[in-house]
Each structure stands twice: as structure tokens, then as C-alpha cells.
Amino acid sequence: MNENKTMMINDTAVVVKEYKGKRVVTLKEIDQCHGRPDGTARRNFNQNKQHLIEGVDYFIINQPNEIRTLGITRPQGGVSKTVTLLTESGYLMLVKSFTDDLAWDVQRQLVNTYFRNQGLTSTEIKVCDESTDKIIDAYLPQADEPTRMLLRATFMAMNNLSNQVGVLKTENKALEAENTKKENIIQENQPKVDFAEGITASKGTISMSQFAKMVSKETGKTIGRNAILLWLRQQKILMRTNEPYQMYKKYFEYIPVLNHWGKGGFATRVTGKGQKWLFERLRKAGVIGEKKNTKLVSVSVVQGDEDDLSWVDEI
Fold first, then answer.
1. How many Å apart are CA 38 and CA 111, to the nearest integer?
2. How far apart are CA 3 and CA 80, in angstroms?
3. CA distances (Å), 251 to each of 169, 223, 224, 269, 271, in order?
4. Phi and psi torsions of 17, nearest 5°
5. Could you write out the three-class secondary structure of 62-109?
6. How far is it, in rounded angstroms, from Cα 17 to Cα 199?
7. What does the chain look like in DSSP terms, one character per residue?
8. How large is the C-alpha radius of gyration of the chain?
9. Which of 33, 78, 109, 118 is the most buried (most CB within 10 A)?
10. Cα-Cα end-to-end distance for the chain
């Protein structure tokens, strides 16, 4: 907003102010425009505040930067701690008790010149007022001029709101279309995201090859990873793809990986809890012998202990 822009209302310079998309005036400006003693508008506001709606009929601001931006200053310098701003509807309700000839003239000037001069042409304002008057004549023929002015302002606000709703609906449709497009892109890329996040194995898990080496070391009996995987599938612990069934997922991790040729697939790894559990299952089933040591030890990961991915199906 241009802070220097003013309008003359009854020989009083009123700084043009817009707050949250609405033209507003201060209580002091109302007193000045109507030639009333200082504090008159404030008294009326306090007496009728319960009938006004904050955010619709008035605003109360207490941020120095906002007050300064609106061009509201004090003669002695600085800004007030709080400022009350009235919209068109709040102004008209506040000055209903002003019934002298000057009051009528000032109200017309403020309404037609200040409040409604926000991009609407005089013809558009006239058409809206004439339409409102027809409705008032049909349903409230005895309405006095203050009531008519308030109703005109209300209908004008409703008309502006309707136009804004139409614009918002159009913008909303465009945003929905854009969001749908983005959601489709996200869904298309989700498998790639899941794959990338799973490339690095979780801490505390080992590959099936590492587990087979650990078992061989503990029992002195050589057993390969393929033999263990085959047994797990036969026992319905793993599916055909080596993915664990739901009830066994706490013992295994089924993660996306890359094979030696850079192709994607999945590998089954054994969790820390699963290592002890699987060792005991294999021992009780007679697949492996007894442990040589009383404590199961983990095999450290060395070069060549990584997942053998030659068996992995491509994604």
C-alpha cells in the first residue's frame, strides 16, 4: 500500500488503509470526518462492541510494524500500543446514531468514495445499490436511510465474497490437478525410493552366507547358504522368493539390494535375534550338529562375506 495516498472526506485527509483485504478507518478518523469531539467513536464502539464481530466489522492490532505500515502515527511521534480498525460494516453500525445532515453526507462520502473504491467502477456500485434497494423496497419498505446504507454495504460485501469464492474455486481446481500430478509422480517413484532406502542393510543383521559360515565354524560341519535357504522354504518359514512369512519376520529382513551386475533384487538377512533362533531350529531338526562352544559367536564381516546376489530375481 502507498502510505502517502489519501482521500479527502469532509475536508479531512484520510490515509487509505487496507487490512487483510478490507478498507478500514480508525476511530479517530471517524471523529475527525464527522466533526465529533475526540473519543466519541471510541465511546460508541465500547458501548456496542458486543454486537460487532471481530475480523468482520473490526480489527484490533497491537504490532508496531503493522501499525506503522498502515501509516498510523501519533503527532508526538511513534505509534500507539493498540489501534482499532473499522471495516465498512463496522463503521455503518457505529455511526447509526449520527443523524444530522453532516453525518449523512460524510457517510455517503466514506461509503462511496473510500470503502467501495477498491477496483469497482461507479457503474458497478450503482447497479449493486439499485439491486439492493429493490430488495429493500420489497421486504423492508419502512427501512430508514442508515439501515439501507448498512444493507447496501452488506450486499456489496456478499457480492465481493461471491466473486472471491469463484476465483478460489478456480484456483483450487488448478491446485488439485497439480497435486494429483505430483501424487502420480510420487507413486511412480516410490518403488525406486524404497529400493534406494533398503540398499544399505540394517545394523545387527548378517547375510545368509555369513550365517552359514558362522554355523560351520560353531559345529565343525560345513553347510552352505543354499542348503539353509532350501530347508527354510521346505519348513514354510520362507516363501518361494525367500521372503519370510509374517510370523517369522522378526527373525529375518527382506531388503532390496543390487547384484554384481548392478541389477536390483531382494536378499534375506538374519537379525540378531534370528541368528540364535535359527541355529536352534537347525540343530533340533538335525540339519547341523551340536555346538562346539557353549556360546554362539558372531562372524565379523570381511571381504567376500557380502550377500551372494546371483540368485536374486530382478525387480
1. 22
2. 17
3. 52, 20, 19, 9, 5
4. -130, 135
5. CCHHHHHHCCCCCCCCCCCCCEEEECHHHHHHHCCCCCCHHHHHHHHH
6. 59
7. --TT-EEEETTEEEE--EETTEE-EEHHHHHHHHTPPTTHHHHHHHHHGGGS-BTTTEEEE--HHHHHHTT---TTSS--S-EEEE-HHHHHHHTTT--SHHHHHHHHHIIIIIISTTT--HHHHHHHHHHHHHHHHHH-TT--HHHHHHHHHHHHHHHHHHHHHHHHHHHHHHHHHHHHHHHHHHHHHHHHHHHHHHSSPPTT-EEHHHHHHHHHHHHS----HHHHHHHHHHTTSB-TTSPBPGGGTTTEEEEEEE-TTS-EEEEEEE-HHHHHHHHHHHHHTTSS---SSSS--PPPP-TT-S---TTPPP-
8. 39
9. 33
10. 58
For residues 66, 69, 74 and 77, what is the CA-based torsion angle, rounded to 10 degrees? 100
User: Is the whole-model pTM more than 0.70?
Assistant: no
Q: What's the pLDDT at 199? A: 39
pLDDT tens-place string over residues 178-199: 788 778 777 776 655 554 444 3
Instruction: Tell me the CA distances in angstroms from 4 to 73, 121, 258, one per residue in order.
Output: 13, 23, 67
Q: Which carries the bigger pLDDT value, residue 8 or residue 285?
A: 285
**Contact at 8 Å (CB) between 98 and 34?**
yes
Cβ distance 59 to 20 under 8 Å?
A: yes
Q: How many residues in the chain?
A: 315
